[in-house]
Amino acid sequence: MSLIFSGCENTTMIDATTAVNLELLQNVRDPKSEHTLYGVLNYTKTIGGARLLRASILQPSCDKGTIAMRQEAVSELTEKEDVFDSIQTVIARFLDVDHILSVCVQIPKKETLKTAEANINNLILLKHILELVDPLRNALSNCENRLMKHFYKSLEDGRYALMKARIASIIHDDTKYQKGMLHMRTQKCFAVKGSINGLLDIGRGTYGGIIEDINTLANQWAEEYNLPIVTSYNSTRGFFLQLNCGPKQNFSKESLPEIFIKVTKAKNTLCFTTTELIRLNNRAKEALDEIYLVTNIVVTELLGDLRNHFGCLYKLSEAVAMIDMLQSFAHACTLSNYVKPDFTKDTLAIKQGRHPILEKISTDMPIPNNTYATEDSNFNIITGANMSGKSTYLRQIVLLQIMAQIGCFVPAEYASFRITDQIFSRIGSDDDIESNSSTFMLEMKEVNYIIQNVSHRSLLIMDELGRGTSQEEGVGICHAVCEYLLRFKAFVFFATHFKDLGQLESLYPNVQNYCFMIHKTFNEEDQSEKVVYTHVLTKGQNKEEHYGIRLAELSTLPRDVIQKAKSLASSISSKKGRQPEVDKETKEKRIIFKLSGRLVQLSRNSKLNKEDLKSYLKSLKMQYRTDTKSLEE
User: Fold this and answer.
1) Fewest C-beta in 10 Å: which of 309, 325, 485, 502?
2) Exposed/middle/buried for residue 179 (C-beta within 10 Å: 0-12, 13-18, 19+)
3) What tens digit of pLDDT does each residue of 495-527 get?
């Protein structure tokens, strides 16, 4: 029997290694840092929204209709500030609907004091969520996009009002979810309305009297000893006394009367109690436990009735999480200049795209770059000096692809994407002690995984493949891997220092050479050349020689070592032969292939009117004549 791993339906597969390499959820250098794609987009207000955002980044949607509806919602939220503000205000008040729903549907095997208190707490949280349904509907009422209208209609379910009415018949209207243990303790104690259970009314009267006695005693001690004493509460000590001992008050442990015991100091506050207060605390706890047990009888019966209507809460959970994620996208888009991306069948085109993480953390605006890939030019080889921006550019392409497929806008002037079914990456040069794998062995394992799973709709980035072995073997492996990947229509971006791979452009018409240009300036003072990085991607292959040595000159390596390296590199370069010329027939086939690719792309994606279409076809014709004429000459 064979096992086949499959991801969620209509989602893009991203393997664990790629998720780590791209820093989708966690920064490689600092796990606590927010410099990740998740950190850039996370302006969610609820736990459910943050959870959905995380899942969406790891498994972007492949369904064009789903993506389009999300984009419509984000567009409207960015354009209508009043709608965005009202939705954000309501969403921020929601708790974790999934968690509350899961604990409410569970029936404890044995009723204990702990389960009784939990049941009362869960009912209060459920009441809080149901009270937010109408405000959320009102916030969505002015939305015109399809997705928000769908959520608005789903919130019209009559079961919400039915559950609210059933709860209102048993639970006080003033009972609300509040932050702070003492506040919630009071809410749970007086949650059930009076006269529903006689024992409950007696227990609450007893508990109220004890609390009143505690406050009375605290006031008496404050007056008797002339101290500004206040009462406080926590789950460990119960009720206790506090005294502020700041710089203007000279209070210390030793200066307190002997009646005060168990004195502790926290910052500028003295905390203490008395034997009488401990006794009252015990009585209060006993009375409260009795209240919880009796209240639980009423609450358990109420939850039993409500469980028959819980089905609508699953839709509410989905709606809250999705709306929260979409308002998070809208928030991120308003903070930077993002554009709504288009989707086509066969084109990846990004004009002046920017790295989303680098844009957020950098003080200066990062250098934008263009990206272009179609089925007739799907394999892009990128060369350039060290630190010229190759690795950053590769990551940028994939991050923008993920952002587009989860329904978010992207940092660019214009962007068009082909929906991809799988995203692969080969980045990094670390070894793995646990699996006893060297750098090169890890490279081969990752490449094998890519080769076994790549498809015509995949997006693949490779950075410095084959650097873990000798240059001859590295070039051979890179060349073989590239030729295998060229069998597919997958979009491949291959960054390398091996200049020999540039020959693939003359052998295959769908291969394009790009490079990151650098400028050299001469310093007359020390008679040295200085490298200036432009971080701009240009067409063609990198022609610079020995840029690694120039970069090494900026380090603290001894001068004689640098000079020796220069002479040896020049000697080795002079022994290499020239690259073979490309014959005329191959060039002619390449021109025809390019023209046919443009025509196929035009037939699939064109939105031009009749006049613009005729003009574009004439330009293609002129370009073809120019290319063939230059070939003959």
Assistant:
1) 309
2) exposed
3) 998 888 888 988 898 999 999 888 766 565 655
CB 366 within 8 A of CB 358: yes
Residue 279 CA to residue 444 CA, distance in Å, equals 71
Q: Which of 179, 494, 477, 133 is nearest to 313 (CA)?
A: 133
Q: Which domain holds residue 499?
A: 342-544
Q: Which helix (H) or strand (E) holds 165?
A: helix 158-168
Q: What is the CA radius of gyration of the chain?
A: 34
Q: Using 50, 70 and 90 to split pLDDT, how confident is the model at 92? A: very high
Same domain for 451 and 356, yes or no, is yes
Q: How many CB atoms lie within 10 A of CB 611?
A: 8
The residues, any chain, with a CB within 8 Å of residue 222's CB and separated by 6 or more, are 228, 229
The per-residue pLDDT for 314 is 94
Gap between the Cα atoms of 60 and 421, Å rounded: 9
Residue appearing with tokens 């040295």: 528
Cα atoms in the 13 Å half-sphere on the side-chain side of 509? 16
Supply the pTM of this predicted model: 0.84
In this predicted structure, the answer to whether residue 219 has a pLDDT above a threshold of 70 is: yes
Asked, for residue 132, whether it belongs to a domain, the answer is yes
Main-chain phi, psi angles of 217, to 5 degrees: -60, -40
Question: Is residue 539 located within the same domain as residue 624?
Answer: no
pLDDT at 248 over 70: no
Give me the phi and psi of 612, to 5 degrees please: -65, -35
- Looking at residue 524, its pLDDT comes to 58
Q: 605 vs 135, 344, 613, CA distance in Å?
A: 43, 6, 12
What total of structural domains would you count in the chain? 4
Alpha-carbon gap, residue 172 to 194, rounded angstroms:
9
